[in-house]
Amino acid sequence: MKNTKLAGSLCIVGTTICYGLVPSLSFMAFETSVVSETLLFNKFFYAAILMWAYIFIKKIPFRLEKQAVKPMLAVVAAYAGIATTLYLSFEYISGSLATIISFTFPAMVITVEMLRGREKVRAVKILAVIISLAGLCLIVWSPDMEIKILGVIFALLCAVCYTVYTIGLSAKALDQVNSIVTAGYVLVTSAVINFFRCLISGNPLFTENAAQLGYMLLLAAVCAFAAILLFCLGVRLIGPSNASIINTFEPVCACLFGYFLVGDVITIGMVIGGLLVVTAVLLTNLPEKKAAGELPGRAEDAS
Q1: Within a domain: residue 301?
Q2: Which of 234, 271, 279, 291 has a beta carbon 3.0–4.6 Å from 11's, enabling a disulfide?
Q3: Would 298 be classed as within a structural domain?
Q4: 54 is in which domain, residue-wise?
Q5: In a domain, 77, yes or no
């Protein structure tokens, strides 16, 4: 059990590192004049090729049983919704404010899991959520933020989509589906959606030079292929609530990569906020005391 929880936690930490690279790599890609629709299509297109090539080479069964179709549709739709709603929120409010609102999803996940009876009501888990949200506010908050209700709504929808995505990955009907296959379906669906976004917007499907292609391949391999795969594996091992709290470490990684890769400024608020998020992650991974004779449950239900 301890090894399972450690492995799952490391998978989610790996996810946060991969996703934390997204802002810096995207900014560097935009400097080469690539547009967001083209970037997203290429990112998911190349990542899907990598994932499905691995699936076919390893001969991993990818056909879904009837009972797994609905939860898989919910997972892929939710992931597509994450990128779409967050992108729309950026048109109305700052990226920092959108990040704060969208990262309310750990609280949503834990609330839903408690209501469903799959997560015990534990003070330490609630405290971890509060601490992580406070840390996020310190990391990304600035006094000159402009708030528009439509942007807030889109960011909240992003949080809802992330909640559905995270909980959907732990559905019993998907227990027999290989995590790599789940990631494959998520990536190919995202590629198709952004294919049509490129067509509708009139932007090019593919990059125009070697520099742009290099960034697309890096984003695909690290920020899509590895990130989604590690997240799917992590949720299966430690459950959605633990995974969602650990995932709040992502903005901390984003700030660090921004500082080292693109010269972003790190403030004292970011440092304190980062320490709070790390504290929340440590609280999440505290061992739970069990009553004598209590049988261990599924790994995904362990706290």
Answers
A1: no
A2: 234
A3: no
A4: 2-285
A5: yes
CA distance 51 to 47: 6
- Provide the domain count of the chain: 1
140-172 residue pLDDT tens: 666 665 668 898 899 899 999 999 999 999 888
pLDDT band of residue 299 (cuts 50, 70, 90) is very low
- Record the tokens describing residue 108, joined without a space: 């949503």
Q: What is the pLDDT of residues 234-264, one digit of tens each?
A: 998 998 888 888 887 887 888 788 888 888 7
Q: Which pLDDT tens digit goes with each residue over 31-63?
A: 999 988 899 899 999 999 999 999 999 999 999
